[in-house]
Automatic annotation (TrEMBL):
SUPFAM superfamilies: OmpA-like. It holds the Pfam family OmpA. It comes from the Bacteria. It comes from Aquimarina litoralis. This is OmpA family protein. Keywords: Cell outer membrane, Membrane. It is found in: Cell outer membrane. InterPro entries: Bact_OuterMem_StrucFunc, Gly-zipper, OMP_bac, OmpA-like, OmpA-like_sf.
Length: 202
C-alpha cells in the first residue's frame, strides 16, 4: 500500500470523528461520520502524496541516508554510513556532515509546511550521564546548522536519549557505529492540513 493511501486511511479515521460533530449539525450522526470520513480520507491522501514526494526527493538527493515513511511522517537516520559523522566525544559537525545536512536543508525549504523533530543517540561507550549530554549537543548541532541554512527555528523540536535507545548490538563495532546517530522526523504541520482542506473545497 502506498503511503498516500495510508494517509487516506489515517485521514478517514480522523474524519469519522469529526464527522460525528457534523452529524449533530445535520441531525444524522452516522451520515456525518461517513461524510467526515470521506473528507478526511481525501485530505489524508493529499497530505500523504506530498510527504511521498518529499521522501522520494530526500532519497534521490541523499542516497546514503536511511529514509522511511511511517504513517504520515518521514524518518531519516543520520549515522556514520550516511555522511554525518561525529568524532569520539565530540559534537561538532565536520565538512562531510555539513554537506549532507545542507542537502536536507534545501529540501526542507522546498517543502516548508512541516514540523521537524531531531533526536540524538549514542552508543554505550563511556558514562551514561556523559552520553546523555553528548546526544543533546549532537542533536542541537544538527538543528543549529539547519537554522543557519535558513530553516525556521519554530519548526524544530529537539530530544536526546544518550545510550538508552540502541537499535543495534552495542557489543559489536558495527552496532556501536549505527547507534551513534541523529534521527530526524518530518511531520505535516497544521498549515499543510489547512491547504489540503482548502484544495478539496476548490
Amino acid at each position: 500500500m502506498k503511503n498516500s493511501e495510508i494517509g487516506g486511511l489515517i485521514g478517514a479515521a480522523g474524519g469519522a470523528v469529526i464527522g460525528g460533530v457534523i452529524g449533530n449539525q445535520v441531525d444524522d450522526t452516522e451520515l456525518g461520520a461517513v461524510i467526515g470520513g470521506m473528507v478526511g480520507a481525501t485530505v489524508g491522501g493529499i497530505i500523504g502524496n506530498q510527504m511521498d514526494q518529499q521522501a522520494k526527493k530526500i532519497e534521490e538527493e541523499m542516497p546514503s541516508v536511511v529514509v522511511q515513511r511511517v504513517e504520515e511522517d518521514i524518518n531519516i537516520v543520520f549515522d556514520e554510513e550516511s555522511g554525518v559523522y561525529f568524532e569520539t566525544n565530540k559534537h561538532d559537525l565536520n565538512t562531510s556532515s555539513k554537506e549532507t545536512i545542507h542537502k536536507l536543508a534545501s529540501i526542507l525549504k522546498e517543502y516548508p509546511y512541516s514540523n521537524i523533530l531531531i533526536e540524538g543517540h549514542t552508543d554505550n561507550v563511556g558514562k551514561e550521564e556523559s552520553n546523555f549530554v553528548l546526544s543533546k549537543h549532537r542533536a542541537h548541532s544538527v538543528k543549529e546548522y539547519l537554522v543557519e541554512q535558513g530553516i525556521d527555528e519554530q519548526r524544530f523540536t529537539v530530544r536526546y536519549y544518550g545510550e538508552s535507545q540502541p537499535k543495534y548490538d552495542n557489543t559489536t563495532v558495527e552496532g556501536k557505529s549505527k547507534n551513534r546517530r541523529v534521527e530526524v522526523t518530518i511531520s505535516p504541520n497544521e498549515e499543510l492540513r489547512r491547504q489540503a482542506v482548502a484544495q478539496i473545497k476548490e
